[in-house]
From TrEMBL:
The record marks K91, E401 as: Influences the redox potential of the prosthetic heme and FAD groups. Is involved in NO detoxification in an aerobic process, termed nitric oxide dioxygenase (NOD) reaction that utilizes O(2) and NAD(P)H to convert NO to nitrate, which protects the bacterium from various noxious nitrogen compounds. Therefore, plays a central role in the inducible response to nitrosative stress. Consists of two distinct domains; an N-terminal heme-containing oxygen-binding domain and a C-terminal reductase domain with binding sites for FAD and NAD(P)H. This is Flavohemoprotein. It comes from Virgibacillus alimentarius. Keywords: Detoxification, Dioxygenase, FAD, Flavoprotein, Heme, Iron, Metal-binding, NAD, NADP, Oxidoreductase, Oxygen transport, Transport. Residues 156-411 are annotated as: Reductase. In the C-terminal section; belongs to the flavoprotein pyridine nucleotide cytochrome reductase family. Belongs to the globin family. Two-domain flavohemoproteins subfamily.
Length: 411
């Protein structure tokens, strides 16, 4: 239990950790950037695990800084950050992070603190953080250990990576393609929960390191396949083309083998809730929403569902025909499409031009007493969170997932 491990820290150590909170707020990103530089230069093999694109963007270091800050601020009551711990633990389990990785992280995190803080990082401060890191690491290790054990005891479950075969490849739009995956060994594999993701392992010719990427499963659980629907990330401005997404689009064909991890993630549909369900997506953020939609019509056929999707145009709008099929066959499901740059061919195919604004959203949602799930680009998600908050939706009824390292969208 978290409360058991926290007693290992004496009051003086806790006081020192809490005193560093303002410093972490101000310089946390600097510390974690230096941490990654130190660690990856001395342990380049870890580049096989860490997403180098997120490293370049600074997303990974920012996410780590937020986690370290949260742990420091709650060092007296680490149970307060268990939702964050659980979310990160799911990512770690999907990436096959193991206990032996934690001492490496701790070593270079302290070196990053020393390097950035200079004389302010006294021996007393560093010693306190070394103790605190040990306690915090134990919390993560314990949560992840239970996840690995649960997976090993699941029928068809597996740890590490397992080869799956592409049994079907479907072009969904100009930029999104779906890959249907079945176990290469022909043995059973576990059903996922609607909203979960898998990690794919890509060994690409000419690339010095393995690339791991996480993609949401876009199908309902219990099918005889897993399905990922991948957006091809093209080069835009200073942002290079996505290495893995382009590899999958160009190189994976029916019969190709793709190593994947078992499904993971805690952004899942609550099937015990029978209130109206509102699913809101932007761009490729529709993948978990499609899984939830496909699931709810099977397991809760009477539940009222509102499916809202925003895209640039019909050219990049994936699975629109499937949504039309569902709304035609299930009268309790309503769907709205929003395009901000429609083409001439899109005439009559969308319900709103522009963006999802608060006034329009209020006009279509059945009630604020509903379960709201949304996913999409970070700016889109910030807007949705603000709209729903302004419409008096309870915070516990607002659920979302950020693609990539976790980040705050509530500010």
């Amino acid at each position: 239990m978290v409360t058991k491990t926290t007693v290992e820290l004496d009051e003086r150590t806790k006081d020192i950790i809490k005193a560093t909170v303002p410093v972490l707020q101000e310089r946390g990103d600097e510390i974690t950037k230096r941490f990654y530089q130190f660690m990856l230069s001395e342990h380049p093999e870890l580049k096989n695990i860490f997403n180098q694109t997120n490293q370049r963007k600074g997303d990974q270091s920012h996410a780590l800084a937020n986690t370290v800050y949260a742990a420091a601020a709650n060092i007296d009551q680490l149970e307060n950050i268990m939702p964050v711990v659980t979310q990160v633990a799911h990512k770690h389990r999907s990436l096959n992070i193991k206990p032996h990785h934690y001492p490496i992280v701790g070593k270079y995190l302290l070196l990053g603190m020393k390097d950035v803080l200079g004389d302010a990082a006294t021996d007393e401060v560093i010693n306190a953080w070394e103790k605190a890191y040990g306690v915090i690491a134990d919390v993560f290790i314990d949560v992840e250990r239970k996840m690995y054990e649960e997976l090993e005891n699941t029928d068809g479950g597996w740890v590490d990576f397992r080869d799956f075969k592409v049994v079907k490849k479907v072009v969904e739009s100009d930029v999104i393609t779906s890959f249907y995956l079945d176990a290469a060994d022909g043995k059973p594999f576990p059903a996922h929960q609607a909203g979960q993701y898998i990690t794919v392992k890509a060994d690409i010719e000419g690339e010095p390191y393995t690339h791991l990427r996480q993609y949401t499963l876009s199908c309902a659980p219990g099918e005889r396949f897993y399905r990922i629907s991948v957006k091809r990330e093209d080069a835009i401005g200073d942002n290079p083309a996505g290495i893995v997404s382009n590899y999958l689009h160009a190189n994976l064909e029916e019969g190709s083998i793709l190593p994947i991890s078992a499904p993971s993630g805690d952004f899942i549909l609550d099937q015990k809730d029978d209130r109206p369900l509102v699913l809101i997506s932007g761009g490729v953020g529709l993948t978990p929403m499609m899984s939830m939609l496909e699931t709810v019509i099977k397991v809760q056929p009477e539940r009222e569902v509102l499916f809202i999707h925003a895209a640039q145009s019909g050219k990049v709008h994936a699975m629109k025909d499937r949504v039309k099929e569902i709304t035609k066959a299930h009268k309790q499901v309503k769907a709205y499409t929003i395009y901000d740059h429609p083409t001439l061919e899109d005439e009559g195919q969308y319900d709103k031009l522009g963006y999802i604004d608060q006034e329009w959203l209020e006009s279509v949602i059945p009630t604020s007493n509903a379960a709201f799930y949304f996913c999409g680009p970070k700016g889109f998600m910030r807007a949705m969170y603000q709209h729903l908050t302004n419409l008096d939706v309870a915070d516990e009824d607002i659920r979302y997932e950020v693609f990539g390292p976790a980040t705050a969208i509530t500010a």
